[in-house]
Structure formats: structure tokens, C-alpha cells
Amino acid sequence: MSSTSQSLLERLGQGEHQEAWERFVEIYAPLIFFWGRSHGLSPADAAELVQEVMALLVVKLPQFRYDPARRFRSWLRKVTLNTARNMVRRQVLELPAGKSARLDQLEAEGEDPFE
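Now predict its structure.
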């Protein structure tokens, strides 16, 4: 899919549309997982990232207003990277060698779209 369906986003914003959420998860969960893995998260952490992002979107998408001049996927990627940064910060285990550099990279990318 090269672009995001505006009607899908509108249905999600209207609340309880089970079929719309199922379609959204089908389309975007693999992408969120990929972004997590590409930024150094383990498969388990990337799967947790998908869950956290989806939970956040349940809250945020009803207030989200789609702007066709801007890319939804860019916004979603920012949300995903910010969520990944927050996950890494919360981890209490010492980071293995090389992970701290990945955290620095994540922190350097973009601003929080919710601030």
C-alpha cells in the first residue's frame, strides 16, 4: 500500500469500528515491527513496540485529523520511534554493547509529535 486510506482513518476516528481496526492492524503492525527491528530492537521488543503503539493509537486516533498534504506514515513513524525511545529508557537491564549508540540515534531523530 503506497498511501493511507483517508476513509480508514476517518472510521478509526469515529470510535468502535472493529473491522477498521482489524484492517489497520493488518496493514501497519508489520510496518511498526519492521521499524522497531531496523532500529535494533529484538523480535520480542519489536512485538512489544507494536502493542504499545497500537494502544497509544486507540487513544490518539480519535483526535487525529488527516491532512492529505502530509504523510500519515511519517507521523506514524515518529510516534513509533518516540515509543521505542521510551521503551528503551524504561528498560532496567544494562544495555549490551552497541545498544547505547542505537539509543543515541533514536534520541537524535525527530521530535515528539504529541508535544
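Residues 111-115 have pLDDT under 50 and may be disordered.
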